[in-house]
Every structure is written in C-alpha cells, then in structure tokens.
Amino acid sequence: MRMVLFAALFIFAASALPARSAMLMPPETGYSAMRIVKTGGNEISGKVYSQGRNERWEISAQGMRQVSILQHDAGRAFLYMPDMNMAMTMNTADAEKYGVSDVFTGIEAEEAGTEIVDGEETTRYRIPPTPKNGNTETMVWITDDGIPVKAEGEGSQGAFSMVLKDLKRGPQDASLFRLPDGVTPMTMPAGLPGMMQGGLPAMPLR
C-alpha cells in the first residue's frame, strides 16, 4: 500500500451507473474524526484533523507518539515526534517514490455509484492500479462535501482498509497544521519515510 492520497483508496460491488472520470483532491471542509487503518494484519488508529486541504493525523507507534502534517497548498509533508520534540520533512525523491506527491496534484478516479456509509451519503470512486501507486486497486467513499469516510483496496502487499468514526464537522484551529514554535524540521533521509511509508491513506482526497 502507499500513502496515496488521501489519499487514498476501497469493497461493495459498483453499481451499473456509467463510470465518469474525476480528479480527487483534499477536502476544503473542516472536520475531525477517528481514523482506523487496517493493513497487513495490523490496525492503526488515531485522531485526524482536516481544514482547508491541510491534514494532521496523530497516532502512537511502538510506544512513541507520531504526528503527520500535510500542507497541500504549500506542497509540504512533515513527520513530528512530540516525545523527542523533533520533526522531519519528506524529500522530493521519497515523495515521488511513495506516491505522496500525488496528493498535491490530484488523483484520477472513476465514479462507481452512490452509497450510504454510517448515515453519510457518499459517492464511490474507483482508483485503478498503476505502477505509481504500487498496482493497488482501490475504492474510496466520499461525502458530498469531500470527506473520504471509507476506503478499501488490495495490492501487491495485501488488503487494506480505512474508516472514519465519530466524524465531526467544523472549523479546526490553524495551529494544528503547523509545527510547534522552535521546531526546525530536518530532511528525512532517503529511503526512510517513517510512518509515511506503508500506504497509509493519510491524506483524504476529493
């Protein structure tokens, strides 16, 4: 799996409606939710915040807190580790290798019907497999205001899924999408994309 953004990705048979192409981009709508990702027999969950095509996802991995921050319009992606008070920014080569750059340019998809997911009216999109996304077949369910509430897919590294729970719409504080004062990010070493590796759909797309 890739961090495709939002990112991003998935089971119910498509309806018989004719497919229409679309360009998926991060949502403008402000919201917070619990994001649950399952992949490779593991489950990762954490609070996600989104506003104005920026995103923050907070998780705990191996006992350490990790925060991914994506700034769409600025074309930047950070990994912040609060326990160490340090941050890294993804370099261009890794962004291209792991598909992160797609979040800044959009992802081509096909409409594949509509469906109610957890009480939300959604449009289902199919993202076809390509070498750039790791040959991953993906379906993503997106609300009318651009929030991806569900995703499922399967690629060379197996099946994966993502769901949002406890979705709450509303403005999010701008400080959530910045590094704390005094924290200067270093460039992430090539080949070490940290939590951004492994195909977590960290940036929802619309």
Description:
There is one protein chain. Strand 4 and strand 5 (64-71) form a beta hairpin. The chain has one domain (21-196): Clam (outer membrane lipoprotein receptor (LolB), chain A), CATH 2.50.20.10. It is built from two helices and 13 strands, in the order βββββββααββββββ. The chain has helices at residues 92-97, 102-105, and strands at 21-24, 31-39, 42-51, 54-61, 64-71, 76-81, 86-89, 107-117, 120-127, 137-143, 148-155, 158-169, 186-187. It is mainly β and 206 residues long. It has a 13-stranded mixed beta sheet with strand order 1-8-9-10-11-12-2-3-4-5-6-7-13. Helix content is 5%, strand content 47%.
Secondary structure topology:
Blueprint (H helix, E strand, L loop, with lengths): L20 E4 L6 E9 L2 E10 L2 E8 L2 E8 L4 E6 L4 E4 L2 H6 L4 H4 L1 E11 L2 E8 L9 E7 L4 E8 L2 E12 L16 E2 L19
Parallel strand pairs: 7-13
Antiparallel strand pairs: 1-8, 2-3, 2-12, 3-4, 4-5, 5-6, 6-7, 8-9, 9-10, 10-11, 11-12
Question: What's this entry about, in short?
Answer:
The chain is mostly beta strands and 206 residues long.
CATH architecture: Clam
What is the beta-strand fraction?
Answer: over 45%
Instruction: Give unreliable regions as ranges.
Output: 1-19, 193-206
Binned, the helix content reads under 10%
Strand order of the largest sheet: 1-8-9-10-11-12-2-3-4-5-6-7-13
Radius of gyration, in Å, reads: 16 Å
- CATH H-level superfamily: Lipoprotein localisation LolA/LolB/LppX
**Structural class, from helix and strand content?**
mainly beta
| Biggest sheet features | 13 strands, mixed
Shape descriptor: globular
